[in-house]
Amino acid sequence: MTTARIVALFVVAALAEIGGAWLIWQAVRENRGWWFALLGIVALGAYGFVAAFQPDANFGRVLAAYGGVFIAGSLAWGIVVDGFRPTLWDYVGSAIALVGAAIIILAPVVTDAGEA
C-alpha cells in the first residue's frame, strides 16, 4: 500500500466525517431540515467504511492517526465552507497533530525482536 493511497483514504474519510457532522450541525443548529441530518448520518456511516480500508490492521492506530487528519481537516472545512479565520495557534496545533499522525501511521513497525 502506498503512502499516497493511505493519505487519499484519510482525506476521503475526513470529507465523509466532517461533512456528515457539518450536515447534522446544519439540521440541528441552523434549522436546515431533517434531510440534512439524514445525509449527515449516511456520510458518517460512509466514514466508518472508508476508515476500514486503511492497510494497517490496528483499529486504534488508524483512528489515532486519523485524529490528526480530522483536526486539520476540520479547520480547512471551516475556512472553505464557513469562512472561519484560524489563528496562528490553530495552524500550529494542526501542524503538530499532522506530524503526530504521520509518525503513528508511517513509522516502521517494530517486531517483538526489536527489528524495524
How confident overall, as mean pLDDT?
A: 92
Give the SSE order as H and E letters: HHHH
Largest sheet: none
Number of helices: 4
Helix content: over 70%
Count of distinct structural domains = 1
Q: End-to-end span in angstroms?
A: 17 Å
Structural class, judged by helices and strands?
mainly alpha
Using only CA atoms, what is the Rg?
16 Å
Which parts are unreliable, with pLDDT below 50 for 5 consecutive residues or more?
Answer: none
What is the number of E strands?
0
**Which strand-content bin applies to the residues?**
under 5%
- Rough outline: flat
Transmembrane segments: 6-25, 34-53, 59-81, 88-110
Protein name: YnfA family protein
Pfam families: UPF0060
InterPro entries: EmrE-like, UPF0060
Question: Briefly, what is this?
Answer:
Keywords: Cell membrane, Membrane, Transmembrane, Transmembrane helix. The chain is mainly α and 116 residues long. The chain is 77% helix and 0% strand.
Question: Can you characterise this structure?
Answer:
With 116 residues, the protein is an all-alpha fold. The protein has one domain. It is 77% helix and 0% strand. The protein is built from 4 helices and no strands. The protein has helices at 3-29, 34-52, 59-82, 88-106. Helix 1 (3-29) packs across helix 3 (59-82). The longest helix has 27 residues, at 3-29. The two termini are 17 Å apart. The relative contact order is 0.13. The model has no long low-confidence stretch (mean pLDDT 92). Keywords: Cell membrane, Membrane, Transmembrane, Transmembrane helix.
